[in-house]
Each structure stands twice: as C-alpha cells, then as structure tokens.
C-alpha cells in the first residue's frame, strides 16, 4: 500500500524536486503527524462505529475502492502522469511545509480507508485488547510508511531525472503502479470481513 502512489507521495516528490530534500523531510514530518491523528482515532475505537453500522463500513470501503480505481486509471490512461513527473511548486517556509504535509495526509482517502477499513480486519478479539492491537498495527504501518517515504524523499530528484530521461521506464512505472492500485481496489471491494466492536 505504501508503495502505491497517492496524494502523500505526489506531494512529497513534488516538494522535494521543487525545493530540496530538507523541504521534503519537513513535509514528511507533517505527514507523520497526520498518521498520528488517524492512529489515535483508530485506537480510541472509531472503527467500532463501523461494527455497529455495517452499511457505513461498506460505503467507506466501496468509496475507498473507487478512489483507488480512479488513481489506477490516472496512472494507466493515455497521457497519464507518473508520480515522478511532479509539478513545480513555489518555495514555502518550514511551518507551511509541515502544515501542508499534515493536511495532505489528513485529506488522503487512501490512508483513511487503510485505518477505517483495512487495519480493523486484522484485529482479533481472541488475542487481547482491541485498542492495543489497533495501536500496534497502526504503529507498524506508520514506521513502514515513514521509512519508505523518507527513502523516496532522499532519492526523489535523482529518480525523477532518471525516469524522465527514459520514457519507457516512466511508462512501465505507471503501468505497474496502476495495476497494483487496481488489484488492491478489487481486494478491498470484495472483502467480506467486518470490523468488530472494541
């Protein structure tokens, strides 16, 4: 999931290419804060709402699948744009970079779906406290996401230049990401499990 392109990756790559690695890392700190908000919401039991109102859970899951399919189409459609062909952005101070990273993550449907529809499927009442399982799973996701995104920030400028100079590689990257996004969308949409109340 972390390797599939979404608003966070697009923002971080564009910001790094436009303003440098330090700006990318400050933006990533804002993204990390956004992850923290989602983790706390999942831990305090927001997923219990989905257990009580199955229709809402299904709606969120299908909306997430539709969003992932839309991202897949954006990647593979004729004239589609790769995440590594970023738009130019104006230079911003550190405080604004952090805030934009935070807001980008909070408004990222991919992350919302992960915390509200995907992670609860791995919580097992027989194993122990649900809040602790949610906290642990969310923490693992955050560590993986921040590690991958930090590596992307560190290599964004070089990778963008490499892919832009090689159109076949850029096109291949788009199709691989589009296929991965489409597959995940189908898996999310067809999954029949439901979250359980805390």
Provide an overview of this structure.
The protein has 198 residues and is mostly helical. It has helices at residues 7-19, 21-43, 46-52, 54-76, 94-106, 109-118, 130-164, 167-190. The chain is globular.
Q: Main attributes?
A:
single chain; 198 residues; mainly alpha; globular
Which helices and strands appear, and what pairs or packs with what?
Elements (H helix, E strand, L loop, with lengths): L6 H13 L1 H23 L2 H7 L1 H23 L17 H13 L2 H10 L11 H35 L2 H24 L8
How do you describe this structure in short?
By secondary structure, the chain is mainly alpha-helical. Helix content is 75%, strand content 0%. It has one domain.
Distance between the termini: 25 Å
Total E-strand runs: 0
What proportion strand? under 5%
Give the proportion of residues in helices. Answer: over 70%
What's the tally of helices? Answer: 8
Q: What class, by secondary structure content?
A: mainly alpha
Mean pLDDT over the residues: 77
Order of helices and strands: HHHHHHHH
| Overall number of domains | 1
3D shape: globular
Task: Report low-confidence residues grouped into runs of 5 or more.
Answer: none
Largest sheet: none
């Amino acid at each position: 999931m972390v390797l599939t392109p979404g608003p966070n990756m697009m923002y971080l790559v564009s910001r790094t290419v436009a303003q440098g690695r330090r700006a990318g890392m400050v933006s990533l700190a804002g993204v990390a804060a956004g992850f923290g908000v989602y983790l706390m919401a999942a831990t305090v039991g927001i997923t219990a709402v989905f257990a009580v109102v199955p229709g809402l859970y299904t709606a969120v899951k299908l909306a997430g699948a539709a969003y992932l399919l839309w991202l897949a189409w954006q990647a593979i459609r004729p004239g589609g744009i790769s995440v590594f062909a970023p738009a130019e952005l104006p230079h911003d101070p550190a405080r604004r970079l952090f805030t934009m990273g935070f807001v980008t993550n909070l408004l990222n449907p991919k992350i919302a779906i992960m915390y509200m529809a995907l992670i609860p499927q791995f919580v097992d009442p027989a194993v122990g406290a649900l809040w602790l399982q949610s906290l642990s799973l969310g923490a693992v996701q955050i560590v993986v996401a921040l590690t991958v995104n930090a590596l992307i920030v560190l290599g964004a400028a070089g990778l963008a230049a490499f892919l832009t100079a090689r159109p076949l590689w850029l096109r291949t990257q788009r199709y691989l990401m589009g296929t991965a996004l489409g597959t995940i969308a189908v898996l999310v949409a067809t999954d029949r499990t439901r979250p359980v109340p805390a």
